[in-house]
Write a structure and sequence with these properties.
The protein is globular, with a radius of gyration of 17 Å. The protein contains eight helices and no strands. The protein is mainly alpha-helical and 236 residues long. It has one domain.
């Protein structure tokens, strides 16, 4: 238990340093802080991958999801200092996080799906599609503009995100919310969703977001990734 607590503590400190640097003055130094903070949730996942016995596929998929999250963080970070290629870095980030969510989805299904419960295979995707369509409609009314070229990529990412959240919910529900690991993963998934929905307002809505707004969605993001990584600890 000592090593996970140390990694969580150091990760919290690193994430705090990154967020402070982000709201004060985003620069190359901030990207380094962000990368270090994200390395800690990957390190936590990697340590627990080795430390916790069994559950190989779930641990592997979660670790891959964390690694692609790190890649997404690095890609999105560069958009602030390379203005001419900003959209390209956003696209790289979207695809990295999309693959990360796909790995998370595979992980929760491998670990928690009980054969014969076909409805629980279908509902996550139906729920995700409904939420995605509703969000795209509502967000456009609220001034969020993805732009013609970005729209299909943004929608693809949105479906990956909402499927990840809904999959975590239905798999926890399938086990009547009696498994700590599944609950932690679901809470982490929800925090990821909150962070990303706020993030779309920062990236694709005209006007400058407040420093508090920028800090809050980053806080939710790191809570999400560290909680998903730490959920491995409670595998039984």
């Amino acid at each position: 238990m000592t090593v996970p607590i140390i990694l969580l503590t150091l990760g919290t400190v690193a994430a705090s340093v990154f967020i402070i640097s982000k709201v004060i003055n985003y620069s190359l130094k901030t990207i380094i802080f962000k990368t270090v903070a994200s390395l800690f949730f990957v390190a936590l996942g990697a340590y627990l991958f080795v430390y916790i016995s069994g559950h190989f596929l779930f641990k592997l998929f979660v670790l891959l999801g964390l690694i692609f999250g790190l890649l997404g963080d690095v890609f999105l970070g560069f958009k602030y200092i390379t203005v001419k290629t900003k959209k390209l870095w956003i696209l790289f980030g979207l695809f990295a996080f999309s693959f990360g969510h796909i790995f998370y989805i595979a992980g929760v299904f491998v670990e928690y799906y009980i054969p014969g419960n076909v409805l629980y295979l279908i509902l996550p995707f139906i729920t995700a599609l409904v939420i995605g369509v509703i969000y795209m409609f509502v967000s456009s009314k609220m001034g969020v503009k993805f732009g013609g070229s970005m729209l299909p990529f943004a929608f693809f990412y949105l479906i990956c995100l909402t499927t990840m959240v809904s999959s975590a919910f239905y798999m926890a529900l399938l086990h009547k919310f009696n498994i700590i690991n599944a609950i932690l993963f679901f809470v982490g998934a929800v925090c990821f969703g909150v962070s990303d929905f706020m993030l779309t307002g920062a990236y694709f809505k005209k006007g400058q977001r407040s420093k508090t707004y920028m800090a809050v969605y980053s806080i939710f993001y790191y809570i999400a990734q560290f909680m998903i990584a730490f959920s491995i600890f409670f595998l039984i």
